[in-house]
Amino acid sequence: MLFIAAFGLTAYFVFAAIQGDYGHFRRVQIEADENVLKVQLARLNARRTTLENKTRRLSDNYLDLDLLDERARKVLGMARGDEIIIN
Fold first, then answer.
1. Rounded to whole angstroms, how far apart are CA atoms 69 and 18?
2. Is 77 left (phi over 0), alpha (psi -120 to 50) or beta?
3. Could you say which of 17, 26, 36, 79 would form a disulfide bridge with 83 (CB–CB 3.0 to 4.6 Å)?
4. Run of H or E including 77
5. Which contiguous run of DSSP H or E holds residue 4?
């Protein structure tokens, strides 16, 4: 009877160590999720850097007239009379 109880407890702890909330499979899943989130963070940081650059170029201290012209045309959907629009 003692052998069966010891075997049962051992089997339970081995199962918990492999598939439990803090087990090996859960750890592998968390590491995979971490890698996906790191890639997403890198993408968002690159996008933020691009937006910060555009914001700085459109600020009062540093005004990039070409960027201002490009954004105004895109937002308003307008072009000059002497321009040809290619879609």
1. 60
2. left
3. 79
4. none
5. helix 2-19
How far is Cα 50 from Cα 44, in angstroms, rounded to an integer? 10
Q: How far apart are the first and last CA of the chain?
A: 82
What would the pLDDT profile of 9-53 be if each residue is shown by its tens digit?
999 888 888 887 888 888 999 999 999 999 999 999 999 999 999
pLDDT above 80: residue 4: yes
Q: What tokens were used for 33?
A: 């999720």
- Residues 6 or more apart whose CB falls under 8 angstroms from that of 86 comprise none
Q: What is the per-residue pLDDT for 87?
A: 65
